[in-house]
Automatic annotation (TrEMBL):
PROSITE patterns (alphabetical): FCP1 (PS50969)
Positions of the catalytic residues: 96 (4-aspartylphosphate intermediate), 98 (proton donor)
UniProt GO MF annotations: RNA polymerase II CTD heptapeptide repeat phosphatase activity
Catalytic activity: O-phospho-L-threonyl-[protein] + H2O = L-threonyl-[protein] + phosphate; O-phospho-L-seryl-[protein] + H2O = L-seryl-[protein] + phosphate
Species of origin: Crenichthys baileyi
Keyword entries, A-Z: Hydrolase, Protein phosphatase
Enzyme class: hydrolase
Gene that encodes the chain: CTDSP2
Name of the protein this chain belongs to: protein-serine/threonine phosphatase
Lineage: Eukaryota, Metazoa, Chordata, Craniata, Vertebrata
Site (Transition state stabilizer): 152, 190
């Protein structure tokens, strides 16, 4: 099962479907129907409810041999650079892109906020991007309160230009893409322990529980967003983040907030 999923993903990454533009948006939601969408956006998301916590990645998964034969522990290599002076003392928030801040598809829509050309194997495809309601205000405010990091399981060639358009204020200090995820049991997991930040000062905002399956206690869940113009999740989350930004320890504060 697991190996077939891996094979599928590798195949998708090189496959080009000339009919991609005709595939309906619902294809994005179905983990079993793999196509060009999934090659580009984050594939294989678990849609419903958190699964039980799996065992931590095996030691071998965290070891990488260098060319000269030296073995380095990947867990010792931080995904993030040193904290910038203006972010000293701030909690780090890892923020997902697709279905958390925006929704993208190859299907042409006339109300797209951005249209981003993405080249896949020599063919340029237009990606139509919708912004989630309140995303601009949300990012501006989050940037004031936290060290914000974009962390997406999508490919950089799609997510990077979208983020250029979305984050014109430069809120995201660092952008992490698919290659920074750990591929674990068919899912791209965002392993917060590799960031190089204290876990008790780290939060993750993501619509997919699979993304934070290693660190469920650091998570702020958010409903998946596709196109609901009346959605106010980001707006409603701001007071929660306001509270968390003052915390010494996010675990303690989240426990308190859950009890309220
Ligand atoms: C092997 O290469 C790494 C950098 O890739 C370097 O840090 C390390 O010192 C090298 N080790 C030896 C034994 O040459
Ligand atoms: C957070 O964790 C670090 C070690 O990872 C520890 O040194 C520090 O005291 C902890 N801070 C709080 C407020 O619990």
């Amino acid at each position: 099962m697991e190996s077939s999923v891996i094979t599928q993903v590798q195949k998708e990454d090189v496959q080009v479907s000339p009919k991609a533009g005709q595939v309906s948006r619902s294809a994005l939601k179905q983990p079993q129907s793999c196509n060009i969408f999934k090659a580009l956006f984050c594939c294989l998301k678990v849609q419903d409810g958190p699964k039980p916590l799996p065992p931590p990645p095996s030691q071998s998964a965290l070891l990488e041999s260098q060319e000269n034969g030296t073995v380095v522990k990947l867990s010792e290599v931080s995904l993030l650079p040193e904290v910038k002076a203006e972010d000293q003392g701030k909690i780090c928030v890892v923020i997902d892109l697709d279905e958390t801040l925006v929704h993208s598809s190859f299907k042409p829509i006339n109300n797209a906020d951005f249209i981003v050309p993405v080249e896949i194997e020599g063919t340029t495809h237009q990606v139509y991007v919708l912004k989630r309601p309140y995303v601009d205000e949300f990012l501006r405010r989050m940037g004031e309160m936290f060290e914000c990091v974009l962390f997406t399981a999508s490919l950089a060639k799609y997510a990077d230009p979208v983020t250029d358009l979305l984050d014109q204020g430069g809120v995201f200090r660092t952008r992490l893409f698919r290659e920074s995820c750990v591929f674990h049991q068919g899912c791209y997991v965002k392993d917060l322990s590799r960031l190089g930040r204290d876990l008790n000062r780290t939060l993750i905002l993501d619509n997919s529980p699979a993304s934070y399956i290693f660190h469920p206690n650091n998570a702020i869940p958010v409903a998946s967003w596709f196109d609901d113009a009346d959605d106010a999740e980001l707006f409603n989350l701001l007071p929660v983040f306001e509270e968390l930004s003052k915390a010494d320890n996010v675990y303690t504060r989240l426990d308190q907030l859950r009890e309220q």
